[in-house]
Amino acid sequence: MKALFAVLxxxxxxxxxxxxxxxxxxLRASSFMRASQFGAQARAARSLxxxxxxxxxxxxxxxxxxxxxxxxxxxxxxxxxxxxFMVGTAALLDxxxxxxxxxxxxxxxxxxxxxxxxxxxxxxxxLVYTLAVTTLFGVLPICAMFLHGGVxxxxxxxxxxxxxxxTVALAMVAVYAxxxxxxxxxxxxxxxxxxxxxxxxxxxxxxxxxxxVIARKALAGVAFTKTLWILCLPxxxxxxxxxxxxxxxxxxxxxxxxxxxxALLLLMVLLGGRLSLDYAERLGAITTTAxxxxxSRARSRPGRLFTAGEARAVALxxxxxxxxxxxxxxxxxxxxxxTLIYLFMGISNNNGTVGDAFVLGQSxxxxxxxxxxxxxxxxxxxxxxxxxxNFRASWIFFACPIDRTRLVRATRNVLVVFFLLPYVALVAVxxxxxxxxxxHLLVHLVVVGLISNLILQIVTFLDPELPFSKPAQKGRAAxxxxxxxFVVGVGAVVMPLLAPLVYRTTVxxxxxxxxxxxxxxxxxxxxxxxxxxxxxxxxxxG
Amino acid sequence: xxQTERLSKAYGAKIALSELDLRVEPGEILGFLGPNGAGxxxxxxxxxxxxxxxxxxxxxxxxxxxxxxxxxxKRLGFVPETPALYDSLTANEYLELVSCLHHIDTKTGQARRxxxxxxxxxxxxxxxxxxxxxxxxxxxxxIASALIHRPEVLILxxxxxxxxxxxxxxxxxxxxxxxxQGKTIMFSSHxxxxxxxxxxxxxxxxxxxxxxxxxxxxxxxxxxAATLEEAFSKLTGVRDxxxxxxxFLASLDRV
Lengths: 542, 255
Prior knowledge:
The complex is a heterodimer of chains A (about 550) and B (about 260). With about 550 residues, chain A is mainly α. Chain A folds into two domains: about 50-285, no CATH class; about 310-535, no CATH class. In chain A, about 80% of the residues lie in helices and about 0% in strands. Chain A has a two-stranded parallel sheet with strand order 1-2. Chain B is of the alpha/beta class. Chain B is globular, with a radius of gyration of 20 Å. The relative contact order of chain B is 0.16.
């Protein structure tokens, strides 16, 4: 083993020490460390158990596809597609920091560790996490393939799932490391969130559009044929293993499988070569090289709505974080790829329009996917605003004579004004080009906007937090996003069925809006009471 | 030995260091002084290999900091200004990690960890996570991690920050004895009293440039100052302290 590492110019002992330390740090930071410190171990254990159960359930759903679909290639294609999406999302939301974060460099930069050894340790850290997620998700589909297709197909499924997972993880690492090398640390720092946004389109777009189009055709009874464009999809490369295991060895199977192996090898060579050579130094430049910052155009007013006290403080903070904190900005902007992809799907399924929310049936389905994104946004906002790498700076909230209840409420209000309302307005503008009735669309968006606001109130009620006051946890963001997608997805399916019934009369609409406003006021009252009790118990975690 | 030759570094238009020449001999404790923004941290970052100079050369024990960084880092113990640590590791785990990075064998590493934890009165806290440590306790761990591989050169940036009086005395005595053993020590601090008492020689820089060097007595004599503090103020161009304070107090009544 040591000899192999020596060939790669990686110091085995240092790699092992760094890997062990990083895993300990991640495990403790993501689950029990904070918990044990603040007496909420059971809660953290529940959160971990929930994530495990969630991935297993998703895998269970995929396993059922293996039995339902007669075409094992198609089943493998969908399963592998989901695996690639999950690993890509985890790398985007939770692990980009492992590759481009300069934090470690402050601790390790002056130790005698080569760039390659350091890079190898970071890469191992990402792979361990993504392979753990892959195992949880993939175990049931793999078992299903063993039962359904036999031992050889089961083994091929193992190779396909882990091969795909490893390839995505390595590809994401290669993208970030290449950017660090070619764009340079200082520019990368500024454009990182936009790079991640572009990657989001690839990851989310691949996940949502490709498997659904394939599944729709296959499940609709259309004969599933391997067209050239399907074979161009990365999941198909790995899914081809299943066909080969089943004895089909034409070029349509061998070429994609060969491409998958070549891609994996290419990534390994790339990462083992120039990308890792000066990685540590470039990473270090992010943290240690101060560049003169151009004076900002003096526009520090956080809006006219937040003029004093806690509200203004929170508005200044959130605005500043959005401008300067990549993780926060990316977390917020991640809604845009989702929205646009959902919009594309809605339009493509509905003859180029989003249909009419007032009409029951197929016509309103064009709006369903966009509605899904709009209902997810509040939870994403809440998720981002509570946790930060700068959580230690929240001591100020505990040291100042502030009203914590007002601070929590102000945080929610700022999120609504800065992000939720502009987002709804932007969606309204975009959808107005694709709707058959602008007035109907506006009414629907007002309702969806109110529901989104209500969701934000409810998630604040459930988990009142001071802004940016808790440490960011690896694995948490991706896990939560998957969970929210699932729950909100159910709501988005039901809504087009119920909405036309309510929208039928003006009175119905008025009652719905009044009811939403009433519930909102009620939740506001309850939140106030809960936050008063909860906020007093909040403790500084720094 | 630490040596820099015409070391320069700029951040955009801002010149952080300008042709700085330094030499610290084995057995010497060099006090490295300068006001905020003088270029001390930049010098330290270059010497520890964290950043590259724009021009000039830096070497430690004869090894070039940038062409032979591993050789330099093997011989270097560094205490950074801000103690960055992996908070979720225990004290023992963190020191073990550092031992591994310096290829210290398990048995020796364990013995040295015990020695250092005992020296700093942290034996009872060895298996406690660093997140639960106070600032001073973390500082002790950082100092311990700088000493665990028996470095030939020590670069210390505000090493006494956060330490209690007893531990500070231990560290000061330790540094003196290490210097007596022939170690090279560079000590950057804003606490001039400590620098004056500990350091065998002092270098003052300002605006990235070398200003003066010598023993405390020599510098005070040259500047006709009663204390090192007064000499430092004169050399780094600080306005009269009494005048500045009076202006501020007067402004309190106006605003």
